[in-house]
Amino acid sequence: MNSNRTPSQKVLARQEKIKAVALELFLTKGYQETSLSDIIKLSGGSYSNIYDGFKSKEGLFFEILDDICKKHFHLIYSKTQEIENGTLKEILTSFGLAFIEIFNQPEAVAFGKIIYSQVYDKDRHLANWIENNQQNFSYNILMGFFKQQNNSYMKKMQKNLLFFFALC
After folding, report:
1. DSSP code at position 71
2. H-helix or E-strand containing 128?
3. Taking phi first (over 0 means left), then psi (-120 to 50 degrees means alpha), and beta for anything else, what does residue 157 get?
4. What is the Cα–Cα distance from 11 to 15, expressed in whole angstroms?
5. What is the DSSP string of 10-38?
6. How many domains does the chain have?
7. Burial of 157 (0-12, 13-18, 19+ CB in 10 A)
8. DSSP state of 56
9. Which structural domain range is residue 73 located in?
10. Is 79 part of a structural domain of the chain?
11. Nearest CA among 1, 5, 40 for reference residue 19
12. pLDDT of 15-53, one tens digit each?
């Protein structure tokens, strides 16, 4: 596949189908127990579809993780932007409620377990993904709000507060 070409709608639709099937299998069978053969059988795709679009099972997993994180980031961003000029308390409450909305879904909890299972991956795939995807993390939303505060304590404690929210 020529990497300089924009994929056709058909290719994009096939990739979305593969990702949807893979996510469902990862959630029901687990990441380790899901094979590319399982994904291909249920998605109607092929090995070449997966290798051309995602390079590997790990690449497919991290593409799904990208999609989920972006979806969550946009939800949190939109919820906090609804009260853009609110007080810090209102913004943090909105942020917290958005987190609850996200992590009160069984799919998010199950996918979180899969992510945690990858923490000790000797090849550091998850660590590398985290290092390369900081822009899609929710604490970036809070960083903007913390920077806007006229409170010297908030400015001083900004990094500590962000660290706390990064753990959440």
Report:
1. H
2. helix 125-132
3. alpha
4. 6
5. HHHHHHHHHHHHHHHHHHHH-TTT--HHH
6. 2
7. middle
8. S
9. 65-167
10. yes
11. 40
12. 999 999 999 999 999 999 999 999 999 999 999 999 999
